[in-house]
Amino acid sequence: MCERYGAAKTCFTYIDSGLPRISLHCRVNSEAVNAFVDPSMTLLSFLRKELKLFGVKEGCGEGECGACTIIMNGLAVNSCMVLAVEAEGAAITTVEGLSPDGGLSILQQEFMNHDALQCGFCTPGMLMSARALLNRNPDPTEAEAKEAIAGNFCRCTGYVPIIAAILSAAKLEKEARAK
Amino acid sequence: MLSRFDYVKPQTLEEALAYLAENAGTKILAGGTDLMVMLRRNAQMPEHILDIKSIPETRRLDYKPQEGLFIGASINVNEVAGAAMTREKYPALAQAANALASYQIRNRATLVGNICNASPGADLSGPLLVYDAKVHVANSQGQQTVAIHEFFTGVKKTVLQPVDIVIGVSLPDVDAADAVFLKQARIRGHDLGIVGVAARLTAAKEFRIAMSAVAPTPIRLTRMEEQLKDRPLTPELAAWAGEEAAKSIRPISDVRSSAEYRRHIAGVLVKRALSQLLAAGGI
Hints:
A: alpha+beta; DNA polymerase, domain 1; 2 domains; 5-stranded mixed beta sheet; 5 strands; globular; B: alpha+beta; Uridine Diphospho-n-acetylenolpyruvylglucosamine Reductase, domain 2; Uridine Diphospho-n-acetylenolpyruvylglucosamine Reductase, domain 3; Enolase-like, domain 1; 4-stranded antiparallel beta sheet; FAD-bd_PCMH_sub1 (chain B); FAD-bd_PCMH-like_sf (chain B)
C-alpha cells in the first residue's frame, strides 16, 4: 500500500514528500555538513543520496541486517532506522571515515588478511560494528565480538574469518598503542 | 520510502503536549526502532512525527533510595543495561535489556518504546511486571501513573490515548537483588523471544513470576505466586512450578514457534529461573 503512488504499489524507493525541508547541521567523517532535508528521509538515504557515501549499504531497510550500520555520537546504529533530521548536531562516522589518508586502517587490513569478505556487501556494516566494539572495549573476547556483530548478517563469507579479523585487529591495535 | 509527514522536536513537555492535543494523527518518536519499520511498510501513515528526545523529563535515568529507579522515555536499552544501579538492584531488568534485539538496535530502542509498542513478546515487560513498575503518563490535562499490570490491554494495545505521552517508568526501591530473566530465542543476541520468563523473590519471600509471548499481553502468574507463597524454595518446588506454569498458559503458534513448544519451554524456563534463584541463595 502506498498513499502517494496508489494503493496497489509498495514504495521501496525514496520519494520526496514535498513538505518543507528542515535544516540539518552535523559532522560526517569529521567534515561539517549543512543541508536542508526532507522530513521523511532516512539518515541512510541522506548519506547515500545527498552525500554520495556509497559505503553505507541498504540491505533490509528494517534494522535486521546491519548493512547500513554507522557510528553516530560514538554508538553503532542502523542508519535505516534513523531519520536524517534526527542527526541534528550529531557526529557521524561511516566506513569512508575509517581509513587514514592513502591507506587502510588496521581493522580494514585485518579483514583483508583474514579473507573476511567475499561479496563485500555486509563489510562496511561489519567494520562499523567492529569499530564501535573496539572503541568501547579494546580487548574483546570471542563471545563479545560475536555479540557485537549479532546484528550484522553475512550471507556468503560466514562469520569465522570475520571474528578472527576483529580479534586480530584488537591485538595489533593494542601493540600499535604500546609503541 | 516513508509516508508523508512533517517532523517536530519540542524542547519542553508543555510544548509537546500542546502539539499532541492540537494535531490528530501524530505519532511519537523516541528510538524509532518499531515506528520506522511501520512507516517503511506504510502500516502507519502519520501526518506528524513528534520527536520527544529533547524533552528533559524523558532524559532522566536515576536511582534514589526509597524512591527507586526512574527510566525516562528517551533512555535507550543499552543505557538501561549498562547503568550500575540496574545491574546491582534490578538484575532481571539488566538481563532482559541485554537480551533485546541486536547491539545497534539497543543503542536506539527505548525501554518505554518497548512497552508502548505492546508486543506480547516485549522482552522488558516481564521484569517490569515482577518489579511492580509504574508508567508515568502525561497529557495536557495533567500527569498520572498507571501500574504496569494495568497498562497492557491486548495485542499491540495499551491504555494510552492519542494525546498521551509516556514520560518514563519508575521501579520501586528493592532490598534483595534476587531476580532473574530468561529468554528462549532462535538466535542468541539478535531475535525476538519465543518465551520470556522473569522471576523474583522479594525481601518478604514472596514470588513474582511474569512471562512474555505466551498470551495476548505480557502476564503475571499471580495464581501460581499465591500457591508458592510461604513454601520453602527447593528443587522439587522449582520442578512443580515449571509443570504448573506450562499447564496454566495458553500460547499460540506463529512463525517463531508452535504452541506446544512454547508451552514446553515455558515450563523449562520457569523451573530454571526458580532453580537459579535457589542457587543464588533464595529460601
